[in-house]
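Me: I'm a chemist; would you kindly supply a protein sequence with its structure tokens?

Assistant:
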Amino acid sequence: MHPKLILLVPILFIAAGLVPWFALGALRRTWKKDCQSPTKFDLCGGALATILIRRNEIRGIGVVERGKLFFDHYDPFAGDVNLSEPVYRGKSPAALAHAAIYAGQVILHAGNDKRFRRLVLWNRITRLIANVLPVIFLILLFTPGGFRLMPIFTGALVLLLAAQLLTLPAFSAAGQKSRAVISEYDLFSPVEFRAFSASLKSVNYRHLAAPVLECFWLRFLF
């Protein structure tokens, strides 16, 4: 093996190991910034999600407090919107934007929107890849000749990030669905609506980084 390639392998290992930690730090910083907004709301995230679902006359979908921050999700099979405590009980623009995104996914699902089906499919794929990546990483690190799996590791990482880009339009559409309902029923004042809309953009950026947290099982460190 070429000496330069031998040197490159540990560098790539270190970089791959640090990426999730940098992503985690970036997510926490943007969340904290949104939570420090001077605009506060009367509604909490759980209440807003429930209102948005009911305003669309959707029945049988519950909003429950479950899980950890940045791993909020809508489970179409269990029929629940799962919100972490900071989102479910929070009254900041960040909390309401997160809640609105997943309520918006319920609206997309109820309308048989093809974008939601693609979102579910790719979410499954990204979760599978994210859980396989650390296994490949450990093989690369501790197995003699494991460097031969480097192309597979790199390809899986690229596919993971590409999948998030493919699902971003559907994820963003869910937020816009909720935003339209909020605007139609004047649920927020103009000042609140502007703060909420700004936070929706931040949630989209967090969506791009979210699967990286699945790598190396960082969800269990929250």
